[in-house]
Amino acid sequence: MAGSTLGTIFKITTWGESHGPALGVVIDGCPSGLSLDESQIQQFLNRRKPGQTAIATPRKEDDCVKILSGIFEGKTTGAPISMMVENTSQRSHDYSQISSCYRPGHADFTFDEKYGFRDYRGGGRSSGRETIGRVAAGAVASLILGQLGITLTTYTRSIGPITIDPLRFDPSCILSTPTAMPDPIASKEAEEYLKEAMASFDSVGGTIECQVHGLPSGLGDPVFEKLDANLAKAFLSVGAVKAFEIGEGCNASQLKGSENNDGFCIQEGKITKRTNHSGGTLGGISDGSPLLLRAHVKPTPSIFSEQQTVNANKEEVSIKIKGRHDPIIVPRAVVVVEAMTALTLLDALLLNMTAKLDSVRTFYGK
Amino acid sequence: MAGSTLGTIFKITTWGESHGPALGVVIDGCPSGLSLDESQIQQFLNRRKPGQTAIATPRKEDDCVKILSGIFEGKTTGAPISMMVENTSQRSHDYSQISSCYRPGHADFTFDEKYGFRDYRGGGRSSGRETIGRVAAGAVASLILGQLGITLTTYTRSIGPITIDPLRFDPSCILSTPTAMPDPIASKEAEEYLKEAMASFDSVGGTIECQVHGLPSGLGDPVFEKLDANLAKAFLSVGAVKAFEIGEGCNASQLKGSENNDGFCIQEGKITKRTNHSGGTLGGISDGSPLLLRAHVKPTPSIFSEQQTVNANKEEVSIKIKGRHDPIIVPRAVVVVEAMTALTLLDALLLNMTAKLDSVRTFYGK
Amino acid sequence: MAGSTLGTIFKITTWGESHGPALGVVIDGCPSGLSLDESQIQQFLNRRKPGQTAIATPRKEDDCVKILSGIFEGKTTGAPISMMVENTSQRSHDYSQISSCYRPGHADFTFDEKYGFRDYRGGGRSSGRETIGRVAAGAVASLILGQLGITLTTYTRSIGPITIDPLRFDPSCILSTPTAMPDPIASKEAEEYLKEAMASFDSVGGTIECQVHGLPSGLGDPVFEKLDANLAKAFLSVGAVKAFEIGEGCNASQLKGSENNDGFCIQEGKITKRTNHSGGTLGGISDGSPLLLRAHVKPTPSIFSEQQTVNANKEEVSIKIKGRHDPIIVPRAVVVVEAMTALTLLDALLLNMTAKLDSVRTFYGK
Amino acid sequence: MAGSTLGTIFKITTWGESHGPALGVVIDGCPSGLSLDESQIQQFLNRRKPGQTAIATPRKEDDCVKILSGIFEGKTTGAPISMMVENTSQRSHDYSQISSCYRPGHADFTFDEKYGFRDYRGGGRSSGRETIGRVAAGAVASLILGQLGITLTTYTRSIGPITIDPLRFDPSCILSTPTAMPDPIASKEAEEYLKEAMASFDSVGGTIECQVHGLPSGLGDPVFEKLDANLAKAFLSVGAVKAFEIGEGCNASQLKGSENNDGFCIQEGKITKRTNHSGGTLGGISDGSPLLLRAHVKPTPSIFSEQQTVNANKEEVSIKIKGRHDPIIVPRAVVVVEAMTALTLLDALLLNMTAKLDSVRTFYGK
User: Fold this and answer.
1) Which residues in chain D are closer than 8 Å to C221, comparing Cβ atoms?
2) Where are the domains positioned within chain A?
């Protein structure tokens, strides 16, 4: 199960299972000199905490982060930053029923196929709790991006058929609505929609959007390490994400060149684009305009109605999933998508410092 | 411009510009013992060759591949396979007009921003010709996948508003229609649509679909190296791709859990899924059902109508692009998407061999 | 401070400082199905524990390892294995004197140069305690190697001028002599030599040797990833190691080809070498004969006599180092060198499984 | 045969066999803006050219390099630099005798074990000609280092028992003596020694030393990516190198702390070391003093006297190697060791630019 490490310079490694003693992350390659304490990380983690609203799982978990290394006198030293959250609210017996059968839409079957057996408690490593490490690391990345004037705004764009109205867009609502929608009216409608789905023991999907402002041009490398390619990977690495779009995204395939091209112009003495159909990159490199990214998230696979499936003995069985499950993944995944975006951007930003010989000479004073 | 290397075990490095002496690729980590000659590679390259139809650029390029290393007595030795295609049909003067101005939708501006200057001849490294190396390497990957019973079917799914009809799906047409559509009627309609776009000096977008059959379960790693995450990266690394979907893709965000979940069942003694909304992966690991992948491709940015833009001196100018350009990227990109899929799958397939201790013991006879 | 991650498939990331709350390691890519509990790791850690003998630092540290993830029902699941040792015996005040001055032979100056400041408590990240993570991960690697019939024997070969006598070589003494010498007589002499050095407030160097038996042929890749190249890196990554040798090592530069070449012969129906001047590799690939590796370790830089140096204010000062320091690094570094060898070999062993197409076909049943 | 790629930011991939059509290298990640033409690369390649002296193989090979990509108007663009040397002087029939038997000291046996068969012509991928790509890439790295005031001086330190006298050290002789010794008197003696060895159909070993002046402090990362660890790997990746030393090297194991520690002092207002036993690094990070590196090289395994060995059919046979072989590897390997050093230093130098948050902020103007 290689695959728990991401990044070239700002490199993170996550670990931990839903029902083990703890989960965590190690950041290797964080620049020295960043002021950092646990409360800053905790703020990000709180955004993915369960048990906060009627539409989220009623588990109460504190998810308190501890920093175990890499900080001295309140600043990052350049050494690996190890962060850990202890699991405190696992109820293993909730999951014993599914130890031998393959839940539809879950990774039970594929883990068994790949590894021969699996930690079936709460999804083990494929649990949504795995994202704790990503969010903790993403918090650090976001803090650095913030110091460079780069801001990320991430929110629920749609839940089932209900989409936010751009005219009502209010980013201050993202943290206050239970849906993480920046539109209080759409949010209310979505809550109703979710309640109906829950009443019929069902779940729903939705979309997450991320806007990045203040990003300098030049990030990303041509060919395989295009900025949008790495963002697509980062997004699809989040469980339940089934599609990625940048800028016009899917719609670009319906447009003509004359509609989709962004002409350049001069604004306040700087080269900029008249429109932003591209969503902030050209040729895989950031072009100085805002990034516009979108994730399509499938409905929670754990539903409470009866489902037909099989068990490890190759017998067809029907199951009714018990336990505590969100009827929608999207609102709690918003901060995960933001974290993945921040991690990807920061790594590209650090790599970009070495693109020109002139920069190298300036750095070394030659 | 790091970023020209892809893969962990089956690792490729592409090089070359549109108007340099040659383009090529080095494959490092190809298993030994594969029968390989240039004609097998050439078949794949021919699928991306220009100058073949009325809807493609009239450039005549032979794009003949030479294998320079890694083969002995007709078989791969395990050593790096270096392949090269010489550029024979460049007409540099076609491009001199755009040396100082930033074409909308192209990477001219971002390359200048990142590197301080650029090889402006024919797009240089951001040219579509860069994909020659990918396709040559993808051919080798495809040959190995083929020996393992894995087949890739890639085709144009839509051009502008015209989409293939699944009831008329005929894979034998992919290589015979100029659109690479597996539906001759849709293809004819699309050709008409393209001619109209060309008549108004415009270009159009479209979608590419890839189906993979015969893929074993177990490929891909949880967390960051999910199979779908790496496929998303591979797809978005192709210039002009603006969205990636797997299985239901964007549509998953509109579905309910009861609609989107794929129940398992037993067929011919094997565990399989009743439906395939997931598109072939669960938890980032292949589940043994077919992969269903989709790329959304923007319209060709080079259009022949006049466009407003700026030059490197920060002056607003209008340009009319001359030269030879396809009015649509999709048909020639089909084989590129197939190549990227093959490369990603083979790398995951090799990595997967080390997942279980039992496999390691069997390999070493202990 | 990228640089805390090692390995391609069996990948480890260490973290932690001498005087932080804890130190640890995450292993990503461990094959599933290995029986593993904390006592097996603890055995390896105990070999590097301080406070055990007259010639080691009198600090008493328990260095008790906890496994936080990756194990289910006593077996590795394929998920990352996170292991942690809490720091219990730090006395930060011991080190306050050196917060502002650069100790000769230590990394104080270079950390300040690179990162702008440093965690000066006990060497921070450059402390010997950093090796706890390596040894814990190396224990897991060694257990897997053991299941494949591969055994590592690592010991102190020399301390200052005193070298073990091959005729008295007794591996059972490695764990029982305080010097880790497999020769009780040399060990006694070395203890005397060390006491004299301590009496004059000085320290001494020595050499560590590692023999690997049972290694299959074929490990290592030609060119940059030669097995011996990665072993050299692994050895030199251990603080205080100043030279690496394989087989005849330095002596090879004095030999003639007729003396240094190892002729092949047939023994019990198998191809083997008559001699082993090469030390177990040919062309960077293991040849089936034992590996013979040697590390040369400098004397402990912390000595108790007065030394001339400078402080961060660029003033020349004299210091007398206080605190608790081993007069020799070698005996406690033996298990670290063994761990680094095991980690390097296991990674090469896993990578090697993909070298032949025939192996790939066999694995996938085609 | 993964293993042909080296480096994290300045990344090279070599390819080609002794008797294939060509050999080459791709550099990915070279900063843009370096003035570069083929003659600069050729100068480095000429230093490893055979056929120049009585003590080198009489093959006449031009080894003319062509640059195929990555340069525009005389400068690097940031795109991959592909360089190729065509093989012009292969005489395959020279090697046919050894197609079925395993030459002592060569990689014939291990390649067969790993890959199932091998390109037996002239050693194939394990030929010394593989280093052409390294030297071409090392030339580019050296040119960048030169612009930063960093100079590498590499030479033959000893041949068999004959060592240069430091009092006669004259770097201007390195390129003029056939031995690459910077001491004309030792060089003459070594030539005599070599002639005797050749007369008795034998070969000899020797040592190569590399000094690096002008290196800034701060290069290298703690833990696994120590500068000396990566240099050790780079050195041992050169075929025939059996030991690596930095600074006092092996001798450090014989010294006391009081002898081996380098006290700091102030010189011309800068912190420097009074002595340089460490050889230029502390804690794996460059300390601003010169690097002192040493490689021990085994004698050429191809000797013309009869040797006992086996063939692939597991029969014991005796062979007499024919063909053209240098009686010593060292003089022609000097430039290879220099190239490997330059490549390793440049990669560390680029990575180091991201160590401090202050540097990141300065780069992005925040």
Assistant:
1) 1-4
2) 5-363
- Is the pLDDT assigned to residue D48 strictly greater than 90? no
- Return left, alpha or beta for D323; rule: phi > 0 is left, psi -120 to 50 is alpha, else beta: left
Distance CA B265, CA B274 (A): 6
A11 to chain C: closest CA residue: C2
Q: What are the structure tokens assigned to D327, written together?
A: 């009686």
Distance CA B310, CA B65 (A): 38
Cα→Cα distances B221→A302, B211, B340, C80, D67, Å: 22, 21, 18, 11, 39
What DSSP assignment string belongs to A158-224?
EETTEE--GGG--GGGTTTSTT--S-HHHHHHHHHHHHHHHHTT--B-EEEEEEEESPPTT-S-SGG
Enumerate neighbours of B (3 or more CB pairs within 8 A).
A, C, D
- The reply to whether residue A147 touches residue D32, judged by beta carbons under 8 angstroms, is no
- Label the pairing between strands B270-273 and B264-267: antiparallel
Question: Where are the alpha helices (H) located in chain C, listed in sequence order?
Answer: 38-47, 108-115, 131-147, 184-199, 227-236, 257-260, 330-351, 357-363
Taking an 8 Å cut-off on Cβ atoms, the answer to whether B233 and A230 are in contact is yes
Domain range B5-363, CATH architecture? 4-Layer Sandwich (3.60)
Angle between helices B227-236 and B330-351 (to 10 degrees): 150
Residues D334, C313: Cα–Cα separation, whole Å: 41
Asked whether residue D97 carries a pLDDT value surpassing 80, the answer given is no
**Which residues in A lie closer than 8 A to residue C20 (C-beta atoms)?**
68-69
The answer to whether the Cβ–Cβ distance between C356 and B33 falls below 8 Å is yes
What chains are in contact with C, requiring at least 3 Cβ pairs below 8 Å? A, B, D
**Alpha-carbon distance D341 to D211, whole Å?**
10
Q: Residue count of chain C, please give it.
A: 366
Q: Which two tokens stand for residue B144?
A: 């190995």
Residues C126, D302: C-beta atoms closer than 8 Å: no
Q: Determine the residue among C18, C125, C233 to mutate to test chain D binding: the one whose Cβ has the most chain D Cβ atoms within 10 Å.
A: C233
Q: Provide ipTM, 2 decimals.
A: 0.96
Q: Do A79 and C29 touch (CB under 8 A)?
A: no
The dihedrals phi and psi of D115, each to the nearest 5 degrees, come to: -110, -5
Q: How far apart are CA C237 and CA D222, in angstroms?
A: 8
Closest CA to A259 of B202, D170, C197, D96: B202
Q: Count residue pairs from B and D with Cβ separation < 8 A.
A: 162
CA distance C352 to D91: 32
Contact present, B128 and B177 (Cβ < 8 Å)? no
Look at the block and give the residue holding tokens 């000097």. Answer: D334
Report residue A35: phi and psi, to 5°: -70, 125
Q: List the pLDDT tens digit at each of the 366 positions of chain A.
A: 589 999 999 999 999 999 999 999 999 999 999 999 999 999 999 998 765 566 666 555 589 999 999 999 999 999 999 999 999 866 556 566 678 899 999 999 999 999 999 999 888 898 999 999 999 999 999 999 999 999 999 999 999 999 999 999 999 999 999 999 999 999 999 999 999 999 999 999 999 999 999 999 999 999 999 999 999 999 999 999 999 999 999 999 999 999 999 999 999 999 999 999 999 999 999 999 999 999 999 999 999 999 999 998 999 999 998 877 889 999 999 999 999 999 999 999 999 999 999 999 999 999
Closest-CA distance, C253 to chain D, in angstroms, reads 4
* Cβ contact C251:D248 at 8 Å: no
* Strands of A65-67's sheet in order across: A5-6, A11-16, A22-28, A81-86, A65-67
Beta-ladder partners of B28:
B11
Please state, rounded to an integer, the average pLDDT across all residues of chain C. 94
* Torsions phi, psi for C168 (to 5 deg): -105, 10
